[in-house]
Design a protein that fits this description.
Shape: rod-shaped
Order of helices and strands: HH
Number of helices: 2
Helix content: over 70%
Structural class: mainly alpha
Number of strands: 0
Radius of gyration: 45 Å
């Protein structure tokens, strides 16, 4: 019969450990639940931001197209600014050459 008191004490100690583990587990579950609620709130906030503050794909395409048109116009203007003076210079030289040839063909008045 001496085994029964030892068994009872062992069971009581085991029950105490199980209670302590249960409290620790409950504490951890509470922390996870709190973090989950925070995470859900963050996700909801992100969804609102996406829906209201960020551009849609169509808006992005529209603005991207507008920017591309501006870039193309600026590129064309730059090319013209570089090319036109050179072309004008060539035309000026050609006109001078024509002027010299015409003067050479026209009779000189005395």
């Amino acid at each position: 019969m001496p085994e029964k008191p030892t068994l009872r004490k062992d069971l009581e100690r085991l029950a105490g450990k199980v209670d302590a583990l249960g409290k620790q587990l409950n504490s951890k579950i509470d922390r996870v639940a709190i973090e989950t609620v925070k995470l859900k709130a963050d996700v909801a906030e992100i969804k609102v931001a996406i829906a209201t503050k960020l551009m849609t794909k169509d808006e992005f395409r529209h603005y991207s197209g507008m920017v591309q048109k501006i870039v193309d116009e600026l590129s064309t203007t730059r090319d013209e600014r570089i090319t036109f003076p050179h072309l004008l210079d060539l035309h000026g030289k050609t006109l001078q050459d024509h002027s010299k040839r015409i003067s050479a063909l026209e009779p000189h008045e005395k």
